[in-house]
Amino acid sequence: MPFIESAGTQQGLPPFSFPGLSITSCVLQADSHRLQAHCDLLLNIDRRHHFRALGSHVFLAINQYPRMYSEYKGRSELGYTSQNEYYVMFPTIRYDLVAGFRVPREVTWTFPFIGVDNPTSAFIGRELFGFQKLVGSISAETAADGSFVASVAMPAFKSFSRETPEEELPLVGIQTGPPLNSPDKKGFPWNLTGVAEGAGFLDDMALKLLDEMDPGAFSVTNLKQIRDAQNPGEAAYQALVRCEWTLENPTVPVVYAEANIDIYDNDTIQIIKTLGLDQGTGSRLATPEATSLTTDMRFGNVTNLFVAS
Questions:
Q1: What is the pTM of this model?
Q2: Residue 266 burial (CB < 10 Å; 0-12/13-18/19+)?
Q3: Could you say which of 46, 79, 255, 259 has the lowest number of CB atoms within 10 Å?
Q4: Enclosing domain of residue 165
């Protein structure tokens, strides 16, 4: 049935283009069992598709979008929006059921945590693609010596009680040293074979997928849900939504001399606990590498892998 457009709708439609996108990211050690638990809860809802976490690392990133355009027919000339974004993502292998056997089909990504400072982007991301975006405050700045500093605050509760007001609480802080003299020549995300080190559960066909990956093309798979208003504990609609993104004209990544990453769990948002990032170090986390690059991104080519309503 056709979607009914209302007069108050303010929604760009895919595909989207994001020229001049700046990506600053780092790799963090996580708990592979926690990552798999996330897949089992939010992705493994249809027996025809099965998702397995790839390795035991996650990518924490701060993205700066100077311009975001909808390229959908009739909306490509409406104008642009801008935003800052934070997310935590990790790669998975998607297996499809073929003749009773699970066959690896692709490497795809999942985003257990994501937030922006642009409400329109949050609404589009949730309603169309299933990204669980929050709207908060995100600042990012590059100093004169090239070092990078960023902070993220998202709406949350310090503690759960009827007397506790919701407020923007600090969630992520990043402080790097200046860039190294020798730039990193690896693409983004980093070579997945290295990320998957120690992931002995992957079969030969899954590892072959890594070797065949297009270094500039990626996909993300989300669980998109609409609550049943009459029965809020039930879903009126569920779907596994797959989207593709491509990176074009990337600059050579810059590697920072060091990076201090602080993550602050609260009663509402628990990144450390959910992903097993603590590793006995408290809120300050060790990262083997932090990099930054600028690129043009295209996002779209959406497919429903599974729909139930």
A1: 0.92
A2: middle
A3: 79
A4: 16-216+249-303
